[in-house]
Amino acid sequence: MKFNEAQDKYEVIAEYQGSYNDSLLKFTSSPPAQRPDVIHINEIGTATLLDLGAYYPVQRFIDSGDLDISEYMTNVLNAYHYQGQMYAFPFSITVPAIFYNQEAFEKAGIDPETLRTYEGFAEASKKLVEAGVTKYGGAIVQDTWIYEQLMATAGKEIVDNANGRQGRAERLVADENGGLELVLGAVREFNSQPTTFVPSSSGEARTAFASQEVAMYIETAGNYGVAKQIVADSFTVQQKPLFRLKGYEDGLPYASGAALWIVDKGDLEKALGVVEFIKFFMLRENQVDFILETGYLPIREDVIRDPRYQDFVANVNPGTWEIVQELRDSTWPGGALFGCLGEFRNIVKDEMNAMLSDSSYTLQDAVRAVAERTNEQIWLYNMSN
Question: Considering the chain, what percentage of its residues have pLDDT values greater than 70?
Fold first, then answer.
């Protein structure tokens, strides 16, 4: 590990613990002394870790001068704030993106700029099949996180108390403000088309994309490197920002992705070691290496100014620059914070599948079921935490 080679005061030992859900479960079920000094977790675990309280807020080290955040995008850092304090440090930042086969679009005569709206995305999916360049036109990975981002672009919160950011969430509001109906309705409509491929996972979508069974799909922008590796030299992989729903064309996504939490084990020296690791990883040259290899998004302005990154967005993946510009301009304060976010995501996925498999199961049935099931999970979480 480069950090260990660069200094001799601290040693970082990385241990893979499975998915984010697996890591969160192991962390919360372990005695404090057996927990790691730092944990990398996405928004599924944010409210749980906040409620657990077993962490040093990053704000402490910013205020002490140990962490300099002057080069970071303020709106990205704001997404990792709760009640005025920055709780964790953004590590792998991403938003949903459209991945598309450049050559397939050229053969079908489709301008990628039309993908900016849902209508344009859906029409492109049909045209790709009609042109005979692919079996399926488009796909949206069945990931509730994508739906959450679409709701944000429409200005729709998911839970009460300012999306759980001004106090503990007590109930779902996406069923009341029209967010669920708006997004689930559009995704159901798209998934019901014969030209649509409906993948159960991002891996399934990437496989279909690489084999040219489908010419475009939506998943996390941070998997650009993975997609490029799988596709190899078969065709050119490009990206565009997530489409907008009708009436909300000016909406913007919010900074999402996993963060580093400094675990409070009563050892401030180790916590300062984690701070040093964060500082090392976030050095401009290290960030550029990480971003160019993976596809995650820059959060430092000096990374954006770096010649290697400038060359990347000019000559390799210009679409990612559009995605970064949206991230810079976004004022949405971040995703919903509530302790059963993972359960909510599974519930939404269940109800989407129910609509697709049973034509008599209406959109209103699905929205009602999501609300009832999620509110029960919120109540159970709040009662036990």
Answer: 100
SS3 call for 149: helix
Tokens for 373, please give them: 């099931």
Q: What is the DSSP letter of 259?
A: E
Domains of the chain, residue spans: 13-93+254-329, 96-253+344-384
Distance CA 276, CA 342 (A): 31
Taking 3-state DSSP, the helix, strand and coil percentages for the chain, each rounded to the nearest 5, stand at 50, 15, 35
Phi, psi of 137 (to 5 degrees): -80, -60
What does the pLDDT look like over 185-218, one tens digit per residue?
999 999 999 999 999 899 999 999 999 999 999 9
- What is the DSSP secondary structure assignment for residue 246, as one 8-state letter? T
How far apart are alpha carbons 293 and 222 in whole angstroms?
10
Vertex 49, ends 43 and 54: CA angle to 5°? Answer: 150
Separation of alpha carbons 234 and 307, rounded Å? 28
Question: Distance between CA 36 and CA 262 in Å, rounded?
Answer: 9
- Tens of pLDDT along 252-276? 999 999 999 999 999 999 999 999 9
Q: Are 161 and 170 in contact (CB under 8 A)?
A: yes
Q: Is domain 13-93+254-329 classified as CATH 2.40.10.10?
A: no
CB neighbourhood size of 107 (10 A): 15
CA–CA gap between residue 112 and residue 121 (Å, rounded): 9
Q: Quote the pTM value.
A: 0.96
Instruction: List the structure tokens of 181.
Output: 């109906």
pLDDT (tens digit, 9 = 90+) per residue, 29-78? 999 999 999 999 999 999 999 999 999 999 999 999 999 999 999 989 99
- Domain covering 96-253+344-384 assigned CATH 3.40.190.10 in the classification: yes
Q: Please check the confidence at residue 376 and state whether its pLDDT lies above 90.
A: yes
